[in-house]
Each structure stands twice: as structure tokens, then as C-alpha cells.
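To make this tangible, we now present a fold written out as C-alpha cells:
***
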Amino acid sequence: MLAVFAKEVGNPPVELTHQPLEYANNIPKSKNEISQVFTSSRPNATLFQFSDGSFMAMSHVDESPLHPRFFMAVDEIFCIFVGDVENISDLRKHYGLSRNSNEATLIIEVYKVLRDRAPYPSDQVIKDLVGNFAFILYDAKSHSIFAARDRDGGMKLHWGVANDGSLVLSDDVEIFPDFCGMTSSSFPTGCIFTNKTGLTSFVHPLYKVRGYRQEDGEGRISGVYFQVDIYSRLPSIPRVGSAQTWGDDQTGESGLADIQEG
């Protein structure tokens, strides 16, 4: 799966935009170049392009039979899911879904409940998912991104920044050196990202998630990684007032701090 969101939409963490000078020759591609390369190497891929210049693509190439990829679109909400939810039967009943609803359909329903003023925070909802998973959701109407990865890292998910500032997410780790140069990192386990509220942990929702410089053996900056900072407690769990829509939530806390030495 692949999703590329235009710079005006993606709002990636500032840490991902740091391109080390010593690796300046490893130039990232633009979102248009990424689309061309991805679809040419996967001719059977399904591509969805949006009016803001963003796009999502899914291919079944190298798909694991134990952890398949699912795609679903409902009311201009698009979701690509990889992995499995072990307690999906219980969650189907909880959300009033049919027996044949797949995991991507479930995530769309979860998002819609959160967007439409659920009485509980997003971290609690995602924490209810049991299994190995990663997903990327895009609400084309509100230009809202909602992505997450399971707490154990059972499914791969990487993210980075293209040379035009677009945010790139994919479960194919091998594409990132070519697509994003050094401006890429593993998406942290047990975390949620939205382009409105930033990166947060659904395992440790009371603490900030910070980005740290990663250095090679010669002390040169080679990338960044993200992890929960147990010494930076948030003043409160973000809640959304009834007068706002979920997609426009502003908490005053970015969930990220400036890059620090790791």
C-alpha cells in the first residue's frame, strides 16, 4: 500500500523534513514521480487520485496470505489496511457492521464514529483493535489523514517526505531510499497520526512522542526515529468539544518536540 499526501495536506512531523547535508546527493522524488514509478513497477495496482494532488495506491504484489491488504471507500473516505484484527467479530457487532465487513470497512466506521463526536478519545478506540495491523485512511471531503500501526510492530509501516514536501506512507520499506532519500523513518509502533493533531501514542496517551536524531558509526546524522518520552507528560488527554468536527480538532499540543540527541 502507498499513500502520498500533498504538502498542504500532509503536515508531516518536522523531524521527517530534515535532510542531512552529507546525504544531499540522495535526492527524494516528487509525488508525481513516485506515482509513475510505483504504478509502472506494479501494473496491476489500483490508483486513486484526489483533487488536492494527493493519491493512494494498492497492489497485492508480495502480499502475505496471513496478512492481506484490504481497500475500501465509503462516502469519500478511503482506507487501505494490511494485517488482521483478531477480535473483528466482536467489533463488527459493536459498530453494527455486517458479518462480511472487512478490516478496512471497520476502520472507516471507527473513523466516522470519532469524527461524529464519540464520547471517548481516539487512543481508546484504536487500543480496542487486537492483532497485527497498519492502516492509512483519507477523508477526501475534510482532507483529513488518519493512520496507525499496531503496538507490537507486527506489520511494517514507513513514512517519509518527498522532495516537494509531500508526506509518503507505505508498508513497502524498500521504496523509501529512492522515493524519500534520507527523509524517512519507521512509523512508530503503537501510534496514531493525524494531520490535524500530529503523532500520538495510543499505548501511552499521556506522554509525548518525540523524534530523535539517528547517527551512523562516524557520528553523521543518518535519519530519525520516534519514541514515547516517558518524562514528557501531557497535561491532559486531548478531547474534542461538541462544537467542532473531529477533522478540525486543535488540542494545543503537537505530540512532537524538536529533534534531540538520541
Q: What stands out?
A: The mean pLDDT is 82. The longest helix spans residues 103-115. The CA atoms of residues 112 and 246 lie 9 Å apart. The two ends are 30 Å apart (CA to CA).
